[in-house]
């Protein structure tokens, strides 16, 4: 089976990109080992601090952030690190060619109940600074800490999936993920219905109406509450993920973060033939104004995302 270094050699001749991806993969393998033992080590609780988002930091949020930072500090290609867990961007090396934006442990509120969580990361060219559109990404990826530990990566070609072997190697298990254009599965937190705008409500009601409704087919609903878990399902079998702008999140611009959640996931999903939007524009075309900026996130099977865009286009 192809391993990560062989895949990287085939996908890019840029040693900086290959080096940073290798470092993030190593950080992911280290975090996976920590998570497997966390309940025994008593590390699933709170860290007693809050992050810039005002969210209570879990001990493992801080530990995961430190692991990522340690691996990146050892890598001369990295110029700046933007992390969900750090208020300000961290200067790593003035000679670095690559900016890394990361959510070191997304979905950590699920750790206490042993649900899949992940590390999400985005690579940007250093010369443009951290506030570049997602379309400028050099690469993106995530590590999903689930029944298997998966590393999903895309540079400029296919979105590929690796599985962490017992010997510590990342082995290629899906060479080119392909998000089915059509799907009968949507992922949204339906407890927020009272906050939804008309397009979101319209799309969900059409879907729930099933075979006799405008969509003309039956839908199922899945919501893990861990973005990496929901997106990995969509990458593997299709579906649509929605965390739309709603009346409660509007003042903040949305719930999920642009630089280290929306952009990398949009890069990966679009690389697999899926589609992404804020409802009003493609996620990768959003011009960031801040490193912790939030945006509405709708992405997945192209036909489903297009139906949501059509609802927004009706105004
Ligand atoms: P809600 C986890 O906190 C997260 O950032 C994403 O991983 C997940 O998709 C979302 O929030 C869940 O949000 O409102 O359903 O708890």
UniProtKB/TrEMBL annotation:
Predominant place of localization: cytoplasm
Pathway in which the depicted protein is active: Carbohydrate biosynthesis; Calvin cycle
Binding site for Mg(2+) 2: 103, 106, 261
Cofactor(s) the record lists: Mg(2+)
InterPro entries: FBPase_C_dom, FBPase_class-1, FBPase_N, FBPtase, Fructose_bisphosphatase_AS
SUPFAM superfamilies: Carbohydrate phosphatase
EC number, as in UniProt: 3.1.3.11
PROSITE patterns, per database record: FBPASE (PS00124)
Fructose-1-6-bisphosphatase class I N-terminal domain boundaries: 15-173
Reaction equation(s) it catalyzes: beta-D-fructose 1,6-bisphosphate + H2O = beta-D-fructose 6-phosphate + phosphate
One of the GO BP terms on file: fructose 6-phosphate metabolic process
Residues in Fructose-1-6-bisphosphatase class 1 C-terminal domain copies: 179-312
Record localization: Cytoplasm
Domain of life: Bacteria
Sequence positions that bind Mg(2+) 1: 84, 103, 105
Free-text remark on how the cofactor is bound: Binds 2 magnesium ions per subunit.
GO molecular function: fructose 1,6-bisphosphate 1-phosphatase activity; magnesium ion binding
GO cellular component, one term: cytosol
Keyword terms of this UniProt record: Carbohydrate metabolism, Cytoplasm, Hydrolase, Magnesium, Metal-binding
Residues that, per the record, bind substrate: 106-109, 189
Family: Belongs to the FBPase class 1 family.
Assembly, per entry: Homotetramer.
Protein name (record): Fructose-1,6-bisphosphatase class 1
């Amino acid at each position: 089976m192809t391993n990560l270094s062989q895949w990287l050699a085939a996908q890019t001749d840029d040693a900086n990109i290959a080096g940073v991806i290798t470092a993030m993969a190593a950080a992911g393998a280290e975090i996976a080992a920590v998570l497997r033992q966390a309940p025994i080590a008593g590390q699933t609780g709170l860290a007693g601090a809050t992050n810039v988002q005002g969210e209570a930091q879990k001990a493992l949020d801080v530990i995961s952030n430190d692991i990522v930072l340690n691996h990146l500090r050892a890598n001369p290609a990295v110029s700046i690190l933007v992390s969900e867990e750090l208020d300000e961007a961290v200067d790593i090396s003035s000679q670095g060619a690559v900016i890394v934006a990361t959510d070191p442990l997304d979905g950590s509120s699920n750790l206490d109940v042993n649900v899949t969580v992940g590390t999400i990361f985005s690579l940007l060219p250093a010369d443009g600074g951290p506030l570049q559109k997602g379309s400028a990404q050099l690469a993106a990826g995530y590590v999903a800490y689930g029944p298997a530990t998966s590393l999903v990566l895309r540079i400029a070609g296919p979105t590929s999936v690796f599985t962490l072997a017992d010997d510590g190697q990342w082995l290629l298990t899906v060479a080119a993920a392909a998000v089915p254009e059509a799907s009968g599965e949507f992922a949204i937190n339906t407890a927020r219905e009272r906050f939804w705008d008309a397009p979101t409500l319209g799309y969900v009601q059409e879907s729930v109406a099933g075979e006799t409704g405008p969509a003309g087919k039956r839908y199922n609903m899945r919501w893990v509450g861990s973005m990496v878990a929901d997106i990995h399902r969509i990458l593997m079998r299709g579906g649509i993920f929605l965390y739309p702008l709603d009346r409660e999140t509007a003042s903040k611009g949305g719930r999920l973060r642009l630089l280290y959640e929306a952009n990398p996931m949009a890069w990966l999903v679009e690389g697999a033939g899926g589609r992404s939007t804020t409802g009003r524009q493609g996620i990768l075309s959003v011009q960031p104004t801040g490193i912790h900026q939030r945006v509405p996130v709708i992405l997945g099977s192209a036909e489903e995302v297009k139906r949501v865009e059509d609802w927004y286009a009706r105004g």
